[in-house]
Write a structure and sequence with these properties.
Elements: H1 18-34, H2 43-50, H3 58-82, H4 84-103, H5 108-136, H6 140-171, H7 175-179, H8 181-195, H9 208-231, H10 236-258, H11 272-302, H12 307-313, H13 315-336, H14 338-356, H15 365-391, H16 400-435, H17 440-469
Helix pairs in contact: 1-5, 1-6, 1-8, 3-4, 3-5, 3-9, 3-16, 4-5, 4-8, 5-16, 6-12, 6-13, 6-15, 9-10, 9-16, 11-14, 11-15, 11-16, 11-17, 13-14, 13-15, 14-15, 14-17, 16-17
Length: about 475
């Protein structure tokens, strides 16, 4: 069923430490994804201590996501050239050092720089870690199970980050939201030499120009969308930045066509499932990330849950994702294949978002939050691993790092752009409702409902594309 995705010979002897190695790699993935969500509950405390403006706070999140998404392709290329283990470990060195800087930050600028460097370290870790997973599990059934643990750690990292952020901020301080990475990083660095096989170096050059163009295009696009709330969607600034980002993206594609050793060989997109899978993964992220972002706001600002209770309310989602991915998803993939699970998962996520879109001001956790959140967790559990598998289908062994970087890039770009656009839509709707005479809480909840509806549309479009474009993989 997934034979086209395996990047080493199927009959190669299994690596005897593969399950212990998988534990380290899943720990890394959990940590990388957790860093995108753990700071959410800590933002008010950070604002008070470091003097951020309300609009400036979003750059604590965006600095990380932009550098993470912008340098993932370079991380994948470096992994292919210098060996996945080496790049994985260097990523953790950078991430741990950056977490120390962020944890002791004394100003807005120092924290933003720390977050950007965390994103850079994570951009080296994520593609090399996925490459290490793919190359250590040569049996298709074992690879399905390994990807189940991998997907569970990624999805759980996003949800658990919100819970841990609330607990750490309430019981310790916001500084520990970042400093918690250091002991984890040291453990991973200590275990890596003995558990992760040293990769082979390949001859080749590094396309730094391509990396800079791709990152600059991504940064300008996200900034234009985020800043549009204050500058206006019809302003010269917004459309000028968007146009410039498109020009840089076109320049990146042109450069890739003409370089002997490009950062992203365009030939990789000849694998049809890989192309369609990456598009679906971007849409999946553009629906999933706004779900937990606005759900956390709904719990705190509409239902008035304290920070810790809000994190606790998301635990059922986290537990469901972990158990479903580890125990059930691999079996369903083995029986039905990639496409049916991917489509069913995205449709379940769509229904979950539609349920949240009618959550009222006087809602309750048991009626309006728990059922919809569990359905969303099941949908994400069904869709994430098949989406990942489809997104790396057809990549040659020497392109495994590139394919891993590409699927992570698609997910992060979808996360950043989806959240930026849906936040802008939600804010606009809230403003309209306020001018229409609704109370502040009613207007805010109306904005949240619109956000969930927009995310539901994105998820449904992803399901349609998956149903039409993803081809059935050969059994194996």
């Amino acid at each position: 069923m997934i034979s086209e995705t395996v990047v080493v010979p199927i009959h190669a002897a299994p690596y005897r430490k593969r399950w212990a190695a998988l534990f380290v790699l899943c720990m890394a993935e959990f940590m990388v994804i957790m860093d995108t969500s753990i700071i959410g509950v800590a933002l008010p405390a950070i604002k008070s201590d470091l003097g951020y403006s309300q609009s400036g706070l979003q750059w604590i999140f965006n600095a990380y996501v932009i550098f993470f998404g912008g340098f993932l392709l370079l991380g994948g290329r470096l992994s292919d050239l210098f060996g996945a283990r080496k790049i994985f470990m260097w990523g953790f060195v950078i991430l741990s050092a950056a977490s120390l800087l962020a944890g002791v930050a004394w100003s807005e600028a120092s924290l933003n720089i720390g977050r950007a460097l965390q994103g850079l370290g994570s951009a080296l870790i994520a593609p090399s870690a996925l490459t290490l997973v793919l190359t250590k599990f040569t049996d298709p059934k074992e690879l399905n199970k390994a990807l189940g643990f991998w997907g569970a750690s990624a999805a759980a990292g996003g949800s658990a980050g919100v819970f841990l952020g609330g607990a750490i901020t309430q019981w310790l301080s916001w500084h520990w939201v970042f400093l918690i990475n250091i002991p984890i990083g040291l453990v991973v660095l200590a275990l890596s030499p003995s558990l992760l096989l040293k990769g082979k170096h390949r001859k080749g050059s590094i396309d730094l120009g391509g990396a800079m163009l791709a990152t600059a295009a991504f940064v300008l696009m996200v900034y234009a969308i985020v800043a549009a709330e204050s500058a206006g969607w019809q302003s010269l600034q917004t459309w000028g930045l968007l146009l410039l980002s498109v020009v840089l993206l076109i320049a990146f594609v042109a450069l890739q066509k003409n370089r002997r050793e490009p950062l992203m060989p365009l030939s990789i997109f000849k694998a049809f499932n890989l192309s369609a899978g990456n598009l679906v993964m971007a849409l999946m992220a553009a629906a999933w990330i706004p779900l937990w972002f606005f759900l956390n706001l709904y719990l705190q600002q509409i239902l008035h849950f304290p920070a810790f209770n809000s994190g606790l309310a998301l635990l059922p989602m986290t537990i469901t994702i972990m158990l479903f991915m580890v125990i059930i998803t691999g079996k369903l993939m083995g029986r039905f294949g990639i496409k049916p699970n991917l489509v069913a998962g995205l449709l379940a996520l769509t229904v979950s978002l539609l349920l949240f879109s009618i959550a009222p001001v006087n809602g309750s956790f048991m009626t309006h939050v728990l059922p919809a959140s569990l359905l969303g967790a099941i949908g994400m559990s069904l869709a994430y691993i098949p989406g990942t598998v489809a997104s790396i289908s057809g990549a040659r062994p020497e392109e495994s790092g590139l394919a891993s970087g590409l699927v992570n890039t698609s997910y992060q770009i979808g996360s950043a752009l989806g959240l930026a656009v849906i936040v802008a839509i939600s804010s606009a709707k809230t403003g309209i409702l306020k001018t229409g005479g609704l109370t502040d809480v009613e207007a805010l909840n109306g904005g949240f409902q619109t956000a969930f509806m927009a995310a539901a549309i994105v998820s449904f479009v992803g399901a349609v594309i998956a149903a039409v474009a993803i081809k059935k993989a050969p059994q194996g």
